[in-house]
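Incident log, entry 3
Record: RNA polymerase II holoenzyme cyclin-like subunit (353 residues)
Problem: checksum mismatch between cached and fresh output.
Input:
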Amino acid sequence: PGNIALSNQYRFEQNIRRLQKECGCDPAREDSYRIQGVQLIDSVRQALRLPVKTFTTACTYYHLFRLCHRDAEYNYQDASLAALFMACKVEDTIKKSKEILCAANNIKNPDHPASQDDKSFESPHKILIGLERHILETIGFDFRARYPQKVLVKMVRYVYHPDVAREVIPMAYDISIDMYKTFAPIKASTFTMVLAIIELAGLLNGRDVAKIRSLDLDKYHTNRTSILEVMLDLLDLYTQFSKYTDVGMRFELSKFIDIKIKLNQELEKDGSSLRRFDIWCERCDDDEKIKYPITPGSATSPAISGSWPGGKLSKSGEETPTMRFVYDVEEARRERDTNNEYIKEEYEDYEIE
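Fresh output:
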């Protein structure tokens, strides 16, 4: 009869690892495809002069889509462009799919620019339309996304003196863009991301972070553990993939390592209730160190395998059921109750002496 799925704005670390394991994710390529996909979105966004809110929405959809589909079933470049195409519609910065494809092509081949009317974009255009449908199914028509940049500037001005704020804001803004190369945007709330970015920018610039750490976090609906989780995710990105980031190339690697050591010491301090991940189920602790199975599918490069609009995108070994979206909650409950009358199993217990 089917399942009822509710929209979920957040994916926690343990949930992300489980989804990657179920999809047979190849850990050797996961980080590379995630970062390169976001870089492509950002490059095309800048070429088309789209606002940052379109970029943040596109990256959110891209991350959610990749968690639910195996790498071998689509080309990560197609998925990133499809996410940007849909984000343009959602944020009312509408661009045609061929405009996006043309911009991506001209970035890749600057010596041979093409126009959006080029016939070579006909097939990729159909692929983007097909992937857009799968992204819609993945997010369950829940188009909400968070915009940390909107709050970031106001918070920097609140925490620092105007003269200092003018120096910190550019750095903090660039960190907020780099952050979308991690999973932090789908794990953390807006204020959690903003406070983590401001503190990290302050530490990198050698500024005093006492005021940011003394804020009443309950007022911002967050906690210290969540902020540390975002900061450590960013530091992992800067220490391992610095050449793919803007801020990572401005400092020596030792700078990031020193900050990371201090934050880890704060986590491991005696009597501290802090931990690496804010939401973590102790009973599922065995999943913390996941060994991803390398299957023939996940060992196939997405650059070789194509994305087909009519293709079946599903988890390994599973059939994709027909998906319907019911917007009336009461109607969904009535339908569920009607189905339950036919599928529920009743038992009678007898005691025999």
